[in-house]
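Objective 1b: paired records.
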Amino acid sequence: MKRKTPILLTGIALTAALAGCAASTSPGNDGHRSDIPKAKVMGKAVNCLPIQSLRESIVRDDWTIDFRTGANTWYRNSLPRRCNGLGFERAFSYATSQTQLCNVDIITVISNTAGPGPINRGSCGLGEFTPVELTK
C-alpha cells in the first residue's frame, strides 16, 4: 500500500506560489510596455548594422530594442518573438564573428544582480533594423 504525503505550503511559500500563478495568467502581461516612445518609420528596414557604428542600445520591453548609430540615427528592432526577461533586465549581450549585427544573430539576456558576475537568462533572435525617428 502506497502512502500519500500531503504537501504543506505555508506563509511566504504559499504567497509566492499564488503570486506566480497570478502573474502567469494575468491578462495584458504580454511583455509589451505602453510607455515606449513612438517611432516614425524613416526608410526601409535593413538586415544588418555595422558594429563599429553602434553607439547606444536601449531595451524598451521584451519585444523592442532601439539602436543608435552615428550622431542621432535610430533603428528599432522589433523582435520576431518575445524575449522573456529582456524588458525587466534591460541588458543583453551578443557574440558574432562578423563585423555586423544582423537579424539572424542571437542576443542573450543577462542579469548582473546576483552573484559575482553576469547570469545568462535566455537567448532570443533579432529582427530587422528599421530606421526610425523617435517621438515623445
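Objective 1b, second protein:
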Amino acid sequence: MSHLETNCLCGAVKITADEVNQKFTVCHCQSCRTWGGSPFFAVKCGTKVTIEGGDNVKMYESSSWASRGFCTECGTHLFYKFKATGEYNMSLGLFSSLQGLEMDMQYFSDMRPSYYCFANETKEMTTAEIMAHFASDM
C-alpha cells in the first residue's frame, strides 16, 4: 500500500489516500456499468482518505450499503464508499502513476455481459454472494 495524491479531471476535488492497495477490483453490476459505461475498476483505499473541495463532491446513495461520489463540476467518478465501514473504493483511473497493479477480484461476475471478458484469473463473487456478504450488514 502507498500514499497517493490525485484530483478529478478539472482539479476542483483533490484526494489524498494513505492506504492504496495495488490489488484492484472490477465490478460488473448494472449500476456500475450504467454509471460509467463499463465495469468499475477500483482500488481499495480504506478509510484514511482526505478530500479537499468537498463542496464539489455529490454523493449518490446507489444501494443500501454504499454511496457513489463524483465531481459536480466535471463529472469525474471518484469513489464508491461503504456506509458501514466508511471505506473507499476509488476509481483506478485517478491513480495513473500507481505501479504493480494486479486485478484481484471481480464483483457481480454473474452479471458480466457476454460482449467482454478478462483473461486474468481472479476471485469472483456472484450477485447472491455479494448480497449475503454486504446486505447482511444492514
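The CA atoms of residues 38 and 116 lie 10 Å apart. The chain has one domain: 2-137.
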